[in-house]
Every structure is written in structure tokens, then in C-alpha cells.
Request: fold
Amino acid sequence: MASNLLRAGHEVVVFNRSREKAEALISDGARVADSPAAAARDCEAAITMLTDDRAVDEVVFGEDGIASTLAAGAIHVSCSTIGMGLAKRLDAEHRRRGQGYLSAPVFGRPDAAESRRLLIVAAGPAEIIERMRPAFDAIGRQTFAIGEDVAQANAVKLCGNFMIASMLESFSEAFAALRKAGVAPQAFLEAMNALFASPVYANYGSVIAGGKFEPAGFALRLGLKDVRLLLEAAEGLEAPMPLASLVRDRLLSAMAHGQAELDWCSASLVSARAAGLE
Amino acid sequence: MASNLLRAGHEVVVFNRSREKAEALISDGARVADSPAAAARDCEAAITMLTDDRAVDEVVFGEDGIASTLAAGAIHVSCSTIGMGLAKRLDAEHRRRGQGYLSAPVFGRPDAAESRRLLIVAAGPAEIIERMRPAFDAIGRQTFAIGEDVAQANAVKLCGNFMIASMLESFSEAFAALRKAGVAPQAFLEAMNALFASPVYANYGSVIAGGKFEPAGFALRLGLKDVRLLLEAAEGLEAPMPLASLVRDRLLSAMAHGQAELDWCSASLVSARAAGLE
Amino acid sequence: MASNLLRAGHEVVVFNRSREKAEALISDGARVADSPAAAARDCEAAITMLTDDRAVDEVVFGEDGIASTLAAGAIHVSCSTIGMGLAKRLDAEHRRRGQGYLSAPVFGRPDAAESRRLLIVAAGPAEIIERMRPAFDAIGRQTFAIGEDVAQANAVKLCGNFMIASMLESFSEAFAALRKAGVAPQAFLEAMNALFASPVYANYGSVIAGGKFEPAGFALRLGLKDVRLLLEAAEGLEAPMPLASLVRDRLLSAMAHGQAELDWCSASLVSARAAGLE
Amino acid sequence: MASNLLRAGHEVVVFNRSREKAEALISDGARVADSPAAAARDCEAAITMLTDDRAVDEVVFGEDGIASTLAAGAIHVSCSTIGMGLAKRLDAEHRRRGQGYLSAPVFGRPDAAESRRLLIVAAGPAEIIERMRPAFDAIGRQTFAIGEDVAQANAVKLCGNFMIASMLESFSEAFAALRKAGVAPQAFLEAMNALFASPVYANYGSVIAGGKFEPAGFALRLGLKDVRLLLEAAEGLEAPMPLASLVRDRLLSAMAHGQAELDWCSASLVSARAAGLE
Reply:
């Protein structure tokens, strides 16, 4: 993302807990800061991309956090997959400080980030989204302006991940039943690829059918974290999501079998085990 | 399907309970028979495409059924979505009579059938599948040879429908939660279309988002029938499919609300009602 | 049941597929018949107690079935756990022959039958229930007249078994989680016994906590059969029962692990395995 | 509980946010304190009984909280239904201050508390449990020493509530299906009372069958809170509890229909609505 911003002619100051990762960007023209606070000082917009709610909380509100130095009128753009509650708190706290805030989580694995194919789901004041559009255009292939309420972008991102997780569960159950019927996973996958004609089905389906879950494209424990955030959001919205509950229970069973660091496609092993396979 | 067979130069005799529908094919070169038995006499292959297990049972084994006239060595190709049990019985009964049998259920709505875009999932003796290939090529865009056991094709078809039904459920839950968060269904759908890039997601997602469930592209009670067949198959295979159970319960709630003849996308109303919407 | 009828002074003719079992009752005063038809000839009431729908169908409507000899005005009392559909068919067929019919399934294991502690759930014409009351009083401790529609008794029996199966599932999940918290099953069971003060909880809870599932008090595959009958009934009634679906999936997973002939309390192993125990 | 302690001859200082409630105990011999801190000063044991985690956190660690005044060697006994996480934190924090801590949640409604029929589930150092036994004997009818790890008592309490909630769900589904079969709830309830012979089934079953959910014996939103705490505990233990997930989703649907302050038995309306009743 930083490389693409630099490539598009933006001035970029980077901070990363692993300083080497930040320094790798120097050759592309980035400056490296010693802290989030230092990185955010004097910029128009501070873009954060972090693992979870706790990390965002710390990088924003912790000692040397960006909230302490971000100028009035400057914008914090949070691209991480976080909960609706934290998004609302970020919005309120930045507002209180005269700073702007956007929730702009993204869809796409690291390779999609590198090749500028991220999908950006943004919510917040329309005027701020427009102001950020050149940056979004530099890092992604499409930006969706979801609404004025920042937490809406986070809800959409969590629901999008849920759509993928649901597909994983449906693949997993179908593969398990079909294996017991003597049908090769690959044969079913080919039919599904012809039916859905979706690269997402093709990619995930092939990982599940192949059964190779290391190295993880997306660690199972992070998938569980996202489903947990979704269920918390759904509880706040008073909207039952039984399929999300089912997915959570499957991921939890996978955790109990030591699959935390495997790819979340390995959740398919839960259906296989329940069917007495392996 | 009959039109496309005629167009490809095959000789076709048709039977339909509504004789007018059969007669509409006369101008394309079809002959019309008075009964399944009459239609199947002297042909190389009898292709059946019917609503459910009971209809197939009757058309094949009933008085004037095709089993009574199909020549030894001729083939019955069942394209209907039927259960694994019936498929096995068809196979055994035809075998006993010296007749051939293939399960070859298809994916695709009537418009796909008209435009030769059906996907054909075939199972049975490889030699018979090859013999039928010209006919399959005439009616579909791709044929998948799944295996030697005829019921495998039916299992794959039922699992394919389950994949679609699961997608409906995930859309339904996401839309319901997001509506309570103030996000327009259309906004979420656009993001999902960019993410999945699948015409199936685009079509179904748009029907759910639009909320227009009449006339039905696929009646909800038929969707329920397919899930029931899948669960029976899965029980026979001793493979639990909790997501299929969930989908069944949603469709059943829709039935209880008088939605039997609505499009099965109207199952989305179940999630909406559970969330207190409408 | 036959012994208790004899003890109460009733005249009893018995038929059992294993003739020895029938003959064991001769010393109590029973006569032994060579077929269901022979047993039902000249009696006031024919009481059937069989494993499943198929067995009842055969014993009633098969060659030498009781329907062929039961006198007009005599009553068939079906005590088996069967589906609502078969109950309705029995009612209609007996009616057509001028014979009476009652559904009167019972709650209670063999030892409860021996000691006259069965609970009898009867449905059918009130007048016929009254006529049968002396017989019911001879075999059970309480008779519940549920309604005029015979299938209602079967629905109540299936729902009662579902209540027990649900309790098994809740115990199973609690025991599994608590074992991972280091709590001994026995310690939890004692608290639950104090809380629920129910012999059913005490008995089943102790079997699960003890983990000894052979010999089976009630075979798991029969438990699955009952849940299947319940789900069919619920589908006919258009009433979703997600907890019954969950129980079915758990029993199915147990079947996949070879537990068909173990006690259905062994369904608890499914929760244990899902939690990574054992 | 305070009255019963006084009646047993203990010296009691009370604090309640609603001072009137505390003052009502003066006639029984209680002294009234102005803050939790004041109440806890100079006592042997501080017993807290509060609504939720947040209230316990505040009363213990807040300004004027009991942690600030409880003497070294004195014991904090937490009787509230709280999460395993908070229990562990309470244990660690009190330990750090040289204070003792027990988790001792109770089963029983207010009337059970009044009549000394509470069930007490205690965990912590055996020696401290013994030291508290006279107090436990004064307020309850039985005390269960679950283990040395304080959070075990909380896990047992949450699982016990889950057992009750599961029973509610099974009753709800059965009643809904049976109503559609024309069976009166009361008729089913009588059979279940004969079968389970449990006062818990009798009481809850009768509330559900009666359909009167106000005033609430236990508010539905508090039931949802307890299930949430259980699911958090189960996630920490890596033990999937799909039945708990189902119960949570039903309670959430009830919340969406404005039932937060109704009795949690009103969760039965969710099954009724899903079946198209009302």
C-alpha cells in the first residue's frame, strides 16, 4: 500500500513495529518514523493497517499514538478489520480532537495489495471520502462509499468476510459428504467453478480440495477473530446470524485441534472429522 | 433441450403431460408420443426431465412407463434432480432389464436450457457417458463425468444446489444485519460483486436485494425438496451437514409463512423477520 | 406388558418373531399364536409394540397381518414409536375395515414396562380410549388422553423423546466445556441433580459422566430414527425445530464413528471430539 | 441472603445502591454502610451479589471499592453470575493485596434466597471454602465445592444456566410443533411432568404454556448476558457449544422483537413465530 502511494506521487512517512519492514520502503522514497506519533505529525492523513482492535487502540490512543500528534483537520483512515464499537469510538475521539476519521477496511490478500487490486469499503463524511479518493485510487481497484456512519464500513467488511467463511463451510460439508460417496473433491470443484465462475470459489475451493493448509494465506485464529467481531456487531444490531454462529463453532473446533496458525481453509477438517473421515 | 437436440440433427420423439407443450416442438421436427412408453419405444436413448422422485418413478415404472418399452441396450438418461436412493433403484431396475442407465442432472434455469448453456453432471459406465456425449453437447455447454456409480451425479447435483442455498442464507443474514446498521442492500451487493465476481452472486444477490419474489424463478417448495433429498443422501452417507440443516429450517419457516410458491430467494425474509424487520 | 395384562386378569394371546420370547409367557397364562393374524383373530384389542414403521407396516398390513383378521369393532392399539404419517394411514385403513385404531405410544424402558411404570400417551376417539383404559391401567402408571386425532399421540411421543435428546446434547456440551476447565463431570452432575431434581437427569447424566455406553439401554441408531421421524413430522407441520436438527447432526456424526449400537448417551462423544478431547 | 446471615447470628454490614433496600435490613440487625469500601472495612468476608461483570468490577476496583479496604486475610466472596475472565482477575488482584477470594455463584430465584434454598457453587482454596461454610449454610440448602480454580465455579454456574436455557428451547420448539398438530400445550406439559418429574420443568414449562411473561422472573436480556458469558468462556476453553449458539440466536431474535424486559421464557415466542404462529 505504501509503495503504491509512493508510486502515485504521494509523500509517505512509515512506521512499522519491525523497523526493517519500514526501511525496505526507503528506496521507494518513504521516510521512516520512530513512532506512530512521529509518523502522523504534519501529515494530511494517517493510514493505519493493523491486526486487531487492540493494536489499533494502542497505535491510536497509546503513548506515542497518532491521536496525540495528528493535526486538526487531518484525517485518520483505519483500514484494519476492526469491530463496529471501536470504529465508533475512533470517530468520536478524533472528532473531539478536531481530527477527521474514516473507516476504510479493505478486501484483498497481500498480493492484491501489492498489485493495486484491493477493494476499499469506506464510510464517513462524504466530503472526507472524496478528499481521500486519490489515495484510495492509488492503492485499490475500486472504492465503495457505504455511508456516513463510519461503523457501516466495518459492518460491510465483517459481512464480506462472513460471506467467504460461509462459502468455506458449504464447500467443507459438500466435500466431506461427497468423499463418502466416492466423488473426488476435484471433480466437484470443477463443476462448481463452471457453475459459480468465481475466482474466489476457484481459489478457496482449490485450497480445501488440495488439503495443504501451510503456510497460511490467512491464519484460522484471525478468521475466528473476524467472526467474533461480526457476532458482536450482530448482537449490537439485534440481528441473529445463525450461519455465523455455525461458522464460529467450526472454527473453534479447529482451534481445539491445534489449527490456530493453519490457513482458515483448514476449518474443512472439522466437517471431515465429524463425518468420520481421516 | 428437445429443440437443441433437433437443431443438432437428432431424431426426437417427445412426451409431455401438457400435450400442447409437446406439440409446440412439431414445427422444429419433433414427433409427439401419447405416453412415455410410446416415446421410448425404438429409441436409442430416453431422456427424462421431471419435477421430483415421484414423477420419475411414475414415468419410468408406472403403467405406460418407459421401462416397459425401452429396448435392451438402449439408455435411460435421467436429468431430473432426484435422490441417491431412486438413482440406485433406476440403475438396478434398468440393468435387470438389459437397459442402460445414466444419472445426468443439470445445472441451469430454463433460459440456460434454451440457449444451450446447461451444465451436465453425468455418472454411470464411462462407455455409456461417451455414447451420450453428442446429445450432451447438443444441450449443454459442459459435461462433467463424475464417476461410475450413477448416484454420484445426483449427490453432486444436490451438493451444487446446497452451495447455492448456502449462498442465499449468507446473503440473507448479511442483508438483515446490514439493514439494521443502515447499509443499503445495493451497496453491499456491489461490494460483493466486486469481491466474488460471480454471475450467480450477482443474479441471486440482486433478487434478494430487490425483494421481488414473484414470479418464481425456482419455487421455494422445490428448493426445500432438494435440501430434503440432500439431507437424506447425507444421512445415508453418515455425513452431518449442519449448514444444510440450517437451510432446511429456514425454508421450512418460509413455508410456514405461505411462501411455498415464491422464489426460493424469499427465504431471505426469514432472516429479516428474525431480526425484527418488516 | 403382556405379563401385566395377564396379572390384571386379561386373556392374552401373544405373537413374537422369536417364538421363545412368546413361550416364556405361557406359564403366566398366555396363549401363543403362530402369526399376527392368528393372534388378532377373535380378540377385542390387538396391541402392537414394534421397532419401527416398517415392522408395524408388515405386522399390520403384511401377509398374515392383523388387519386381515381383526374383527369389526375390535381395536388395534399401536404402542410403537412411529411417524405421524403411518399413524394416519393405520387410522384410515382400520376405519375402512370397520376396525378401531388408537395410537398409544409409551415412555419407559423395559424395566419400567415390567414394573408397570410406563407412561401411556393415547390419542383417538375418546370412547375407544375409555374402552382401553383397563388395559392401560394394567400396564402403565398414568395414561394421557391427548386428543381425537391419532397422530397427536405420536407427535407427543416424538417430542418427548426430543426433550430427552435435547437434555443429552446440553449435558454433552456442558461436560465437554467443563472438562476443559478441569471440572469433574461428577461435580457438575451433582449440582444439576440438586437443581433439576429429576430422575431422568440423574440417570442419563450419570451414564454420560460415566462414559460406559455398552450394553445400550437404547441404541443410538434407534435414537436417530426417532429424531428423523420427528423432523419428518415437523416438516409436515411446517414447524422448524433447529434443536432437533442439531441433535440429528450429532447422532449422525456418532453413526459415522461406529456408535450405532452403543447407547445413545454416547452422542456425548461428539461434543467431546469437537472440543479436541480424547 | 443478608437476613438469613443475620438470623444465623452473623454480624452484617450492608451496602446497596438503593439505600432504602439496605435500610430495610436494619430492623433485622444489619448496619448500613455508605459505600462498598465502608462495608468491607474490618469484616472477615465481603459478599457481593450484583447484576453483571461491570457492576462487580466497579464495586470491587472502583473508587470506594471493597478492594481498597478489605483487610489482608479477609475474603471476598463473589456470588454474582460473572465471566471466567473476571473471576480470574478478581482472584489475581485480591491475591496481590493479600486478600482471599472465592467464586461462589448461586442457583435460585429471590424467593429461594429468602427461604434459604439457594444452591451454592464454590471454587477456590479448599481452606477458604471451609472457612466460609457457616455463612454458606446460613444462606443456602447445599454447597458444592467444585475445585481450587475460582473460575471453575463460574463455569459451572454458566453451564447450569445453559442447561435451563436449553430446556426452554426444547420446550419452545416442541410446543410450537405440537400447537400446529392441534395438541394443547397443557396436555404435553402434563406428560413431560410425569416423565421428568422435575420442579424446574414444571415451573418453566408452565410459564411457557401459559404465555404470561410479565412481570419477569428473570429478564430475557439477563439471560442473553449469561449465554454471552458462557460462549466467551467456551471460546476461551476452545470448546464449541452449538446448542448455546442456538440459544443465543433465539434470545437475540427475541431482543429484536422488544422482549428484553420480558421473562426469558418468552424466547418461546421465537419458535412460535418461526412456525408462523400468532
Summary: The beta strands of chain B are 13-14, 31-32, 45-48, 75-78, 100-103, 106-107, 118-123, 140-147.
